[in-house]
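Run log // design_07
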């Protein structure tokens, strides 16, 4: 049974909403979590039907696991956590072949130089600027590293990202994975919470005396609300606010757009399918201006699955057209493994975060000059009667389940 007169309304049952609801319960506050979709987890979503094996459509790793709040929660549930960094081989393809050991060492050195340059530029006291302005550009591997660190990891090109935010939110290992996926873990953490599915919120009336939310489900009032929907939804006007949000909050939402990372996952049962060891990560070097290679992960847990990752502008270009995503991923596979191996890949699953109206993208980045936007968005309004939470609100672990979780806890502690 859901509370009929809750203290707090939580909008969205992703990581931030689940964390907020758990924290509210721990503090003796009643709440109702209103989720527009048919499931919990938000952008942490694992399903096993499409491939016959667990597949993370969104969040896949517990990054910087020693500082990640979900690590302890997973262990408390008895979830086996595997250090992907300790198992995977990192392979680089250049000039149509696998890199030599000397090229691998040169690439690793260039990566170290990239981060040393970025960190020095972010700390030199100069005004914020696009991260691309600080990135090395003269070396033979620099374009590949910029593409990898930008579009393929952050889901947006470095030219679209704040240098200061990019440097501050860079993550370390270990990077942990689990057999039932991050989505499976988050769904277990939601068990027993007062969640109402299929309850999309259209409007929120807020002020010093509390909040009232409305949607197709009707109307609910409470002392406070925690809004955890994505900045993609907020920027598109998916929820109207009465009175309108303060100008600074609106500006922060616009300054934290969602990038896009699309996964194209293929069954690889056929004997002619690409043959890479389990857990292998594969990158292809940039060959010319405008080249935006996909990257691959092979056979996680030994399963016969190959996953292509495509981020940034290239992912947006085929958003909503899964056949185009499949064709481009097969073309990438053919470049590396040959046409026969690419054709041997099975029917794919293509993630659909861009066109889903409940998300409108993958995860956030701060635009150049907007390094303070995350803390601005997270600042409680009306003495805590209206709070925002989610990965976009975390100044350190942005774009991760850790950031979403911690922001949900922080918001729950801010409500009166």
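design_07 sequence
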């Amino acid at each position: 049974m859901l509370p009929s007169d809750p203290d707090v309304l939580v909008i969205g049952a992703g990581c931030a909403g689940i964390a907020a609801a758990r924290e509210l319960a721990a503090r003796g506050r009643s709440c109702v979590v209103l989720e527009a979709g048919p499931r919990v987890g938000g952008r942490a979503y694992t399903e096993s039907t499409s491939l016959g094996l667990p597949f993370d459509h969104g969040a896949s790793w517990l990054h910087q696991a020693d500082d990640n709040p979900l690590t302890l929660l997973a262990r408390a549930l008895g979830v086996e956590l595997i250090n992907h960094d300790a198992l995977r081989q990192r392979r680089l393809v250049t000039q149509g072949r696998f890199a030599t050991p000397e090229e691998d060492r040169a690439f690793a050195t260039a990566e170290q130089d990239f981060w040393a340059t970025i960190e020095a530029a972010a700390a030199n006291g100069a005004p914020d600027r696009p991260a691309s302005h600080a990135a090395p550009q003269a070396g033979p591997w620099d374009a590949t590293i910029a593409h990898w660190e930008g579009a393929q990891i952050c889901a947006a090109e470095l030219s679209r990202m704040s240098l200061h935010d990019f440097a501050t939110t860079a993550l370390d290992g270990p990077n942990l994975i689990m057999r039932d996926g991050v989505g499976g873990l988050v769904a277990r953490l939601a068990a027993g919470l007062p969640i109402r599915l299929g309850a999309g919120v259209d409007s929120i009336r807020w002020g010093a005396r509390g909040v009232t939310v409305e949607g197709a489900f009707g109307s609910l009032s409470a002392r406070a609300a925690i809004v955890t929907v994505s900045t993609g939804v907020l920027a598109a006007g998916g929820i109207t606010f009465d009175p309108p949000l303060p100008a600074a909050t609106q500006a922060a939402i616009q300054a934290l757009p969602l990038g896009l990372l699309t996964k194209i996952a293929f069954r690889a049962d056929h004997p002619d399918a690409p043959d890479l060891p389990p857990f292998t990560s594969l990158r292809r070097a940039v060959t010319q201006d405008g080249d935006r290679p996909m990257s691959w992960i092979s056979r996680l847990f030994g399963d016969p699955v190959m996953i292509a990752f495509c981020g940034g502008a290239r992912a947006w270009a085929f958003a909503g057209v899964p056949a185009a995503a499949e064709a481009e991923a097969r073309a990438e596979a053919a470049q590396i493994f040959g046409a026969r191996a690419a054709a041997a890949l099975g029917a794919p699953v293509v993630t659909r975060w861009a066109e889903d109206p409940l998300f409108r993208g993958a995860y956030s980045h701060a635009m150049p000059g907007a390094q303070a936007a995350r803390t601005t968005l997270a600042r409680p309004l009306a003495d805590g009667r209206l709070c925002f939470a989610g990965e976009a609100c975390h100044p350190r672990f942005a774009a991760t389940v850790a950031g979403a979780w911690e922001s949900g806890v922080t918001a729950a502690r801010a409500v009166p």
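The domain at 8-51+178-256+366-414 is CATH 3.50.50.60 (FAD/NAD(P)-binding domain).
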